[in-house]
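Today's session is about reading a structure prediction critically. Students often jump straight to the picture, but the first step is always the sequence itself: look for stretches that repeat, for charged clusters, for runs of hydrophobic residues. Only then move on to the predicted structure, which in these notes is written as discrete structure tokens rather than atom positions. Here is the chain we will use throughout the hour.
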Amino acid sequence: MIDGIYSITFRGRDDWGMGMLILQKGSILGADSGGAQFDGQYFERGPVVDVKMTMTVPPGATLVQGTKPQPFAYTIPVEIAVLDSLVSRVGAFCDRS
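Below is the predicted structure for this chain, in token form.
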């Protein structure tokens, strides 16, 4: 089980950003410093964690890879697979039971 509170740091072509994700019982919620929100699910498959979530970008936000601000909110689907061993666990909020 990888339930916990995680910080995220990411870099794009134009900038870098940070945010927070909460993983709990298969659900993911979070936000980043630019106001984008994350909502979705994760599935543990042996040493792999499959993530399926949606990033909702607020009006006027510039993304780190250089996407220009839009006058309306929009969503970006995110699907990734991460090795469990690459997930850094910091703090007392993580439960590995």
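Discussion point for the tutorial: The longest strand covers residues 48-57.
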